[in-house]
Amino acid sequence: MRYLDIGTSKRISKIGLGTHQFGSPDWDYGERYAGQEARSIVRRALELGVTLFDTAEIYGFRPRRMARRGVVEGVAPVRCGQDSRFRAWRAHLGDALGEMRESAFLATKLYPGEPAVPVPEQRAIASANRLGIRCLDLYQVHQPGRIAPRSSIMRGVRALQEAGMVSEVGVSNASLERWRAAERELGSPVLSNQVGYSLVTRSAEHDLLPFAESHGRVVIAYRPLELGLLAGRYHHANRPANPIRAGYPLFIPQNLERARGLIATLREVADTHAATLAQVALAWVIRHPAVAAIPGASSVE
Questions:
Q1: Which of 71, 177, 243, 271 is a plausible cystine mate for 23, CB 3.0–4.6 Å?
Q2: Is 3 one of the annotated active-site residues of the chain?
Q3: What is the DSSP annotation of 10-77?
Q4: Domain of 30: which CATH number?
Q5: Could you tell me the pTM of the whole model?
């Protein structure tokens, strides 16, 4: 495993694990995945040297169906009407990490939906409790600037950092302008910006990657495999069925057709190196010294 060289107290692996799918029925992975496979995936990731685990308080949360946040982080599942799909999702990251929680670099996110300054403090404590840890290694502002004023959110996050509740601060889906503004509002470095980055989503190269490299910051790349597209699983005759993928623009027929040449090239490189397409696509993403990637995983394999 490779690790970022940025001087954090815990090492951050260049390949992490995204957990969006752990608590969400929309992925259609089934109850066995939520109850057993997800835990096995986390354990295998730890064995392979993965330290970066990314989650969010909003993952698995459905405002109209669920009364509580943090389904993926670690809170017990909430019964939701008569739909059994929403009763058995027990894949909690904190539980899966077990005694390895303190050695992992745990990143979670605050969704800035309310303007009050104490909100980040209350919700950070709730996230830490669900994850079973005392300090959040990376607390990211999810969609900065949405609903709540950034300045009030960052004041609350700064208080958390000063109190030792948060080690590092990040943003997610922020432009360079908003990343810099977040640093001004925090009054100290904002370590990371989590954005989509892959062979087909490359806007981060324009300004985010140069800024990260020159300032000792990190771009955390989500969807580095574009939901399986770059693993070569899907094509015009095998389109995805689950709601998350089916609604993603890259899987409409025109874009699947446009991707054929790229997939063919990936396959050629993979065959040359006795690798998989996914391995090649991930290697391309983490070639940059300031990038860590957080693919999801549907199985231990």
A1: 71
A2: no
A3: S--BSB-EE-TTTT-GGG---HHIIIIIHHHHHHHHHHTT--EEE--TTTT--TTT-S-S-TTTTPPP
A4: 3.20.20.100
A5: 0.86
